[in-house]
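FW: tagging you since you asked about this chain on Friday. Here's the raw sequence from the shared folder, copied in full. Didn't touch anything.
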Amino acid sequence: MSRNEFESFLSRIVEFNKRLNFELDESDVSLATNKDDLLKIFQLRSEVYKQVGYSREFPDPIDGMSFDDYDLNSAILYVKKNGEVTGTCRLVFDSEKKLPSDKRVSYDPYRRRFGKIGEISKNIVKHDGTALNLEYKYLMRGLYYVFNKNEMDMTVSLIRRDHLRIFKNIGAVEVLQDVENYGGLSEDFILMSCDPSKPTRLFLKAFLKN
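HL: got it, structure written out here
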């Protein structure tokens, strides 16, 4: 990818995010609507994936930056702490490219069942050694806003089984199937659906309030 192509790529992502309906007065979580923060998001993805051993499954197209074509039709959320991007995730809108995990499992049965689906992916937090990471709370809040203010019927995600507890806080969650040997990674993975239009009482009380 040439420099001009990369600049165009960044611009298209920024424009997509600017068109989304979002709580613009939300201070704790933001959409990627400028290139500088988008570059920091790509760098954080690369850094954390290298730390947890995911680089082989998700190689960097540019050394030190993790991104792909699905970013072009994704709501890319991020959290900043002291000017540094410390957490990010994305909600990929379905398109003719389908969704990222369609390469591993077919989402077609779930398209027929749910309607318009989107995939939650690239859910990353930079751990700083503290016991509590508020980034998860803010990112889940951002996903809730994007889902409920834009056209989507259900979210799906291919996640590590031990991350299920995070998404159970948002809304109605269903484990759709087990996914074995995901990219040769050693952890247990599952395919889940999550309906943020049906938030739990805990989410309404703890996640939507500061």
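FW: Residues 35-52 form the longest helix (18 residues).
HL: agreed, and The CA atoms of residues 29 and 142 lie 6 Å apart.
FW: great, closing this out.
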